[in-house]
Design goal:
Blueprint: H1 5-34, E1 49-52, E2 57-59, H2 60-64, E3 69-73, H3 79-93, E4 101-106, H4 117-120, E5 125-127, H5 132-136, E6 148-152, E7 158-162, H6 171-179
Parallel strand pairs: 3-4, 4-5
Antiparallel strand pairs: 1-2, 1-5, 3-6, 6-7
Length: 180
């Protein structure tokens, strides 16, 4: 049975409409996912080793052996990370043993010298020169997703993520950290 022009036109319009719907839903679903930054809670945290701005080697497994680890992904030049680092250091300087290891993971570019404010931070700043740790932790690099905090428990499992923000360092946070 041959198709006439009207049936072909109707079929073509239906196919185009179906294609537009499929593309729309595919773009919408990927768009929603792209705003989330950070690993899924409950999965093993990726293991990595990075060099600090001061040239020391840091291994996440070694830090985990002493307790929970809070990774802060972002730019150590930002005011929010500078203030957060000060708050963490202030709290940790008054507690023994220290309940938490905290590191800032910086994506390039790096400042050229020690006059840079990042060198003055007590919180270690680690250089992710090729972005591999950002990638393995599913950290998106944008103004809405950085900074992102990732809390890893002593067993090496992602316990909490703070996409686009840093955890509020209140008594509830420190109580939770002490229970990990």
């Amino acid at each position: 049975m041959p198709l006439d022009e009207k049936k072909l036109l109707t079929l073509g319009v239906c196919l185009i409409f179906t294609g537009v719907l499929l593309v729309h839903f595919q773009v919408a679903s990927f768009g929603a996912l792209s705003y989330y930054s950070g690993p899924d809670i409950g999965i093993p945290a990726p293991i990595f080793s990075l060099e600090s701005l001061h040239g020391n080697q840091f291994q996440v497994t070694e830090a985990r052996s002493h307790g929970p680890v809070l990774l802060v992904f972002g730019d150590c030049h930002s005011d929010s990370i500078q203030k957060f680092s000060s708050q963490v250091e202030r709290y940790l300087s008054n507690t023994s043993p220290q309940p938490l290891a905290c590191m800032i993971i910086q994506f390039p570019p790096y400042a050229p010298g020690e006059k840079d404010p990042c060198y003055a931070l007590m919180t270690p700043v680690l250089k992710d020169t090729n972005g591999s740790v950002f990638y393995r932790y599913n950290i998106k690099i944008s103004a809405t997703t950085l900074p992102t905090g990732v809390l890893i428990n002593r067993s090496g499992v992602v316990y909490a993520t703070y996409p686009g923000q840093l955890p509020e360092l209140n008594q509830n946070f420190w109580r939770m950290v002490n229970q990990l």
